[in-house]
Structure formats: C-alpha cells, structure tokens
Design a protein that fits this description.
By secondary structure, this protein is mostly beta strands. The chain has one helix at about 5-15; strands at about 15, 20-30, 35-45, 50-60, 70-75, 80-85, 95-105, 105-115, 115-125. It has a single domain, classed as Immunoglobulin-like (Sandwich), CATH 2.60.40. About 5% of the residues lie in helices and about 55% in strands. The longest helix is centred in the N-terminal third of the chain and has 7 residues, at about 5-15.
C-alpha cells in the first residue's frame, strides 16, 4: 500500500485499526479531459494464513454523484487478466469492486476510465 500512496499524502486518508488489522486509505484521482475529481478508496483486512480481504471503492470527490459511465476495473498486473469490472449509473454515489480475498504479495492494478480519460494504480496486496 505504501507504493500506491506516498507517505506525504497518507496521513490525510489512512487509518489503521490495530485490533482488527485493517488498513484504509484513499487517493484523489484527476482524470484528463474531465471536470470530475474522484476519490479511490482501499480497505485491506489482514487475515490469517497470509491472506488479504480487499475492498476497492470509487467516490465523487466534490459532487454528490459519480459521473455516468465511470468504469472501475481490477486486473492481475503480471498477466493482464481482467478480474472484475463495474460501471456507474446516472445517480450512483459510489461504485465498488466486490470484496475479494487474495494472498499477500499479489500484484494488482486498478483502472478507472471515463470516456477517453484513463487512470491506473498498481498495488501489492
């Protein structure tokens, strides 16, 4: 998670609950050719046996709803295999990749697309 969110910006978006071993952090995303800023949120639960339970959500940063047709997708970095894709509807206040589990150390990529604007974030679970 440190690679995805540099230490300078983590303090504003990161919280750690030590009893449940949960890390939550977020990053503001500015898409090219779009007036809509977005907030990408990650929540990672550290589980037994070196596994992670991960939730990825996308929120509007300054508007009450997301722009219509924002696409949020999850890809395995090494193979390019598409795991999940969700798309916003007209009045969605957020969208999310369904929560998933994986081994610690899995290299993943989140893609955000709105029309011709794209943004991607690489992370390691």
């Amino acid at each position: 998670m440190e690679e995805l969110f540099p230490k300078a910006g983590l303090s504003k978006f990161r919280s750690v609950t030590t009893s449940a071993a949960v890390i939550t952090c977020g990053k503001k995303v500015i898409l090219d050719n779009s007036d809509d800023d977005l907030l990408l949120m990650f929540s990672v639960d550290m589980e037994a046996n070196n596994r992670r339970n991960i939730r990825i959500q996308l929120y509007p940063a300054s508007e009450p709803v997301l722009p219509k047709n924002v696409v949020l997708s999850l890809v395995i970095s090494k193979t390019g295999q598409l795991l999940k894709t969700v798309e916003s509807a007209a009045k969605d206040t957020f969208i999310q990749i369904p929560p998933f589990r994986c081994q610690a150390g899995q290299q993943l990529r989140v893609n955000i697309q709105l029309e011709n604007s794209r943004h991607q974030e690489e992370f390691i679970s």
